[in-house]
Design a protein that fits this description.
Layout lengths: L1 E5 L5 E5 H19 L2 H8 L3 H8 L2 H16 L1 H6 L5 H16 L9 H6 L7 H27 L9 H20 L4 H13 L5
Antiparallel strand pairs: 1-2
Helix pairs in contact: 1-2, 1-4, 6-9, 6-10, 8-9, 9-10
Amino acid sequence: MEVDVAAAKGRPREFCVDRALAAALGVFWSKGYEGTSMADLTEAMGISKPSLYAAFGNKEALFHKALDLYEAEKLHYTRAALEQPTARAVAEHFMRGAIEAQMSGCDPKGCLEVISVTACGAEAASIKADVIQRRASSQVALIERFEQAKRDGDLPAHVDIAGLTGFLYAILQGMAVQAGSGATRADLERVVETSLMMWPSR
C-alpha cells in the first residue's frame, strides 16, 4: 500500500506502509519496546519522524500495529494448533510451531510478546497490558480446546485444565527466552520431546 505523507520540509514523501511496518516489527523484535528508539525506527523504516507520526501515530501506536502484524504472520501456527485431533497433538503443534517461529533464519530469535511483557518501565505499562490481554485471549481458546478434549475422553478426568494450559504456556515462554539467549534448535527440540513425555495420557 503506497501512501503520501508530508515530510519534514513539506515535500510529499511516498513510501510503502506495509514495508515500513515490517521494518518496525524487526526493530521491536530484536531490541524490545523499551530498547527501541525513534532513531532506530526511522532509520530501519526509511522515513522521517514526521512521516512516521503521520502514518502510524506515536511509538506506542506503532508497536501495537507491529504486534498485530507479528500475530498475523508469525503466530498463525497457534490457530492451526487448535484444530489438531488430540490434546497432545495440539500441544506438540504449539511447541514445534514456536520453534519454527523463534529459530527462523530471517527473524530475530525469541518471541516478541515475551520480550515485550518483561519490559518494566512506566512507558511500557500499556504495552505490557496489551500483550497480557492478547495472551489471555489465546489461553481462553486453548482452555476451551482442552476442556473439549476432556469431555471427549482424550484427557483424563482428573486433569486440571487451567493448570495444564499454564504448564504449556510456561514451556512456550521458557523456550522463547532460551531461543533469545542462544539456545539451538536441538536444545529446543529436546524441551519439546521431554514435555511430550510428561503429557497426561488416558
